[in-house]
Amino acid sequence: MISCFLFSCAAAQTERAALIPLPRELSWRNAVFDISEARAVYVSSDSLRPLLARFLPAGLKRLPVKKGVPGKLADRSVYIMLDHVPASVCSDEAYQLTVSSENILLKANTPHGIFNGLQTLQQLLKGNKAGGCAITDYPAFSWRGYMVDAGRNFQSVSQLKQQIDIMARYKMNVFHLHLTENVAWRLQIKKYPQLTGAASMTRNKGRFYSVAQVKELIQYCRDRHITLVPEMDMPGHSEAFTRAMGFDMQSGRGLEVVKNIIREVAATYDVPYLHIGADEVHITNKNFVPEIEALLDSCGKKVIAWNPGAAKSNKTVQHLWKAEDQHYKKDTTGKYIDSRFLYISDMDPENTVVTIFNREFFEREQGNKSLLGAEVCLWSDRRVAGQRDLLVQNAVYPALLAFAERSWRGGGYSGYHFSIGTPESERAEDFKNFERRLLAHKEQYFSGLPFNYMQQTHIRWKLLGPFNNKGRLDQPFWPEQQPGSLKAAAGLPVTGGTVWLWHTHFPLTSAWLLHPQEQTTWYAYTRFRSNCAGIVDFWIDTKDQSKSGADATPPAGAWDYNKSRIWINEQLVSPPAFQYAGRKSGLLEEPLADEMHYIRPPHRIAVKKGWNSILVKLPVDRFDPLKDWQVPPKLMFTVIPLKKAAGLNRETREWLFDPGP
Predict the structure, then answer these.
(1) Which listed CATH number (3.40.718.10, 2.60.40.10, 3.30.379.10, 1.10.443.10) goes with 25-137?
(2) Residue 435 phi/psi, 5° resolution?
(3) Is the pTM higher than 0.85?
(4) 188 CB contacts (<8 Å, ≥6 apart)?
């Protein structure tokens, strides 16, 4: 590896802390508080002591904690108070934080608000120094959740806690644990131990959560002001139930067993909600869902269910999962949670962050008593070889940070956008600001943890096309035949390391092509400048495998099934030698091995001193995902150099990209 390429220090690019989520009101002051010189922590109530014992920043835990707040604030002290903080929404989570050279003052309406303020204070610290600022902050949405499907792929309690810790750090407040599936029932039910017997499971056999473990997780969440929402899917996704019990859930016997299960769960766990799923199922017993709802209501539990799904009571919270569902706009009495296009396992890492950041939940700036908020979801239908693969193959932590920002700040952009936006647009500038903070957090807080996201807002391309290929995907056109003319050619300017020209869910989703056409070929061209010659690592790909399905592996000697090609400095880049080249679609029990660029070794490409060219060819035949829904056409590509070159741009130490006019 050549010595002229260095990792950048994103956090060092700014003197001010990179805060996520960005506070609602923030003003920086020319002051610094040195916590190594602090004398004491004053609290307004002894009830705050347990919270501070757990979550006070490490540098302050050495200080004595004293009851009472003097009329005059003493120098070199920290004050944490329950006091009135104005907030237009979610006042129970609001806080104010002021840092001066003399003291730190944190006040909130509730302990939850104090907890939120402590998370911000932790991010403000660089070593022992906290930058001067005045913050007033509260979330736009009261429901800011993360769902984990532990039914299909079991995760240990320790790995779940790791994710809960990240949620807490970024002020997310709902952990939705999907516990039952066709492959396994993973919630211990003492009355029916056969449900969690290995014989009834087809994946991760014998792995389930005991009563003690679930109670432990509930308390772990509660300590971090997170509500745990267990989900038992009923009556659909219940093949494991049928194998264990010997009868269908919607049968008369099945309904009685489910009622017994609910009574046991409601009596065992101190949780306010129970999610019943109730989607993707043919209803044969019309009384099933109404009777389950009525029982849960009598047990003092609020019901959540997926929508679309079985017909439900107007008291049940509707959990949206399809973009087509807009009926909530006319419903003045129901309550809703938004998870539309928030499935991490459907997206590649770069556009996971872009798409989530762009979202405008419910097409509103902020929530209300009806539109509670949103959940980002980890559905991995496909079996993984090991539980950590769930965090590696899905951009979980980058997604959580993007979601935390958007669900706390509110706002966003109408529609579903798989593009950063044109360089001059507000959306692109907004995302560039977030990306800077995201990369600072990656470097500062995620060492040793999977964090599959690379800087991409500096990467510029121009798209050339469309060329009519008449269904002949390997037909060449002038961009590959006359590469010397590419620099001067006019094209459509686009930005990003991963670029979607067209998305599978078009026209619901927007990508770079406003009017995509079938049987066409597009080319993407750019140049990047290096100060020295050598070997550079690249992320390179022309598709992404959905983890919530089972896409076929590309054939041997090809990047994909569309005959895409890539040249760097006019030299054809060879596709990966896939371990399972040509593996058929639909094989959910076969784990992914090296199908995506972010789970295999990077391509090592020779670059020359000065300008280097990149050309990507992207043919497509028909936009027909129904032809084989496991191999949906994906008109996209990724090309990202992973190292940054010292001396190219000394302010940012990033690659300089220039595709020409």
Answers:
(1) 3.30.379.10
(2) -60, -40
(3) yes
(4) 196, 208, 209, 210, 211, 214
